Amino acid sequence: MLKQKRITVTGGKGFLGSHLLRKLKNEGCHQFEIADQPEYDLTDIADIRRMYEETKPQIVIHLAAKVGGIGFNQEKPAELFYDNLIMGTQLLHEAYLRNIEKFVALGTICAYPKFTPVPFKEEDIWNGYPEETNAPYGLAKKMMLVQSQAYREQYGFNSIFLLPVNLYGPGDNFDPRSSHVIPALIKKCFDAIDRHSDILDVWGTGTATREFFYVEDAAEAIYRATVSYDKSEPVNIGAGFEISIKELTEMIAGLSGFRGEIIWDKSKPDGQPRRMLDTAKAAKEFGFIAKTDLTTGLIKTIQWYKENRHVIK
Fold it and tell me: What is the DSSP letter of 110?
């Protein structure tokens, strides 16, 4: 179905976007365009309209987002709310005005309530307020779900909403100002080794749990949903397991070659206490089951960082 379609991927230069573009190409899709900075500022309605006029998509996959880890969320809550809200709202509305065939919106696990029962089921998404440090980001992204369902109900517009869990993999963001936990820990380990330090300082208590989703699996899930899923209900996409930050840190330290002591800075926040998705709906609706186990994914990510760390800006 997608081989003959004109596809525009917002955020196509980014971490997930680059892997999704490779997936589309491998599946025989050749009519795809990237909508990303600096060519387009997707918070600017004039740029959004110009993007639609220039790329003329039949399908839009909206990956673009302003996003970061706990520290970045605490530092820039207003920007995270406004930029993500305005991007999603305007992109989807302009897609509807242009009779785009399908709009694929990427949400976030941060949209779930702070104390969601584990594993997170899609029907629990409105049963409470998100964890405070990432609520502005999570709620801004969740508004795309409201808009998507409202536009389908009133206009018959075909948009879907996917809820990915924490991504990681080759090409991830290793900038300590905005990176998530896995790339942040990998960089810390190598920096400590470079300094001949036997101490690794890590935020929080280590007791919080997370689920991690290898980026190539995420690209596969998005591709399958774009091909086969056409319903209003949100769908989780993830790997369906959880691991504590303590266990994760020890794994990354071991795989990176760091042999020193891990010191936990308990004055720093843990974030949401637990995260793990129920991924049964993705398997049922479009046949997606994650293939990459955490150890394999971490080895590939660490190897990529070792080979590229000196050229990463």
Answer: G
Beta pairing, strands 32-35 & 7-10: parallel
Contact 167, 215 (CB under 8 A): yes
Find out whether 204 and 265 touch, Cβ atoms under 8 Å. Answer: yes
From the list 237, 253, 233, the residue with the least C-alpha distance to 245 is: 253
Compare 278 and 67 and report the one with higher pLDDT: 278
What's the mean pLDDT when you consider all of the chain? 95
Which candidate, 260, 78, 53, 242, places its Cα nearest to that of 166?
242
Which residue has tokens 């056409």?
A: 230
Q: Which residues are 201's β-sheet partners?
A: 263
Mean pLDDT of 92-110: 97
Which tens digits make up the pLDDT trace of 184-235?
999 999 999 999 999 999 999 999 999 999 999 999 999 999 999 999 999 9
Q: Check if the beta carbon of residue 108 is closer than 8 Å to that of residue 137.
A: yes
In this prediction, residue 313 carries a pLDDT of 60
pLDDT at position 72: 81
The H-or-E segment that residue 273 falls in is none
Residues with a catalytic annotation lie at 137
What local confidence, expressed as pLDDT, does residue 176 receive?
85
178: Cα separation from own chain's centroid: 13
Q: What is the distance between the alpha carbons of residues 180 and 164, in angstroms, rounded to a whole number?
A: 14
Residue 108's nearest CA partner among 137, 69, 66 is 137
- The dihedral through the CA atoms of 156, 154, 287, 68 has a sign that is positive
Tell me the C-alpha distance between 282 and 210, whole Å: 19
Residue entry with tokens 């785009």:
100
The total of other beta-carbon atoms located within 10 Å of residue 233's CB is 13
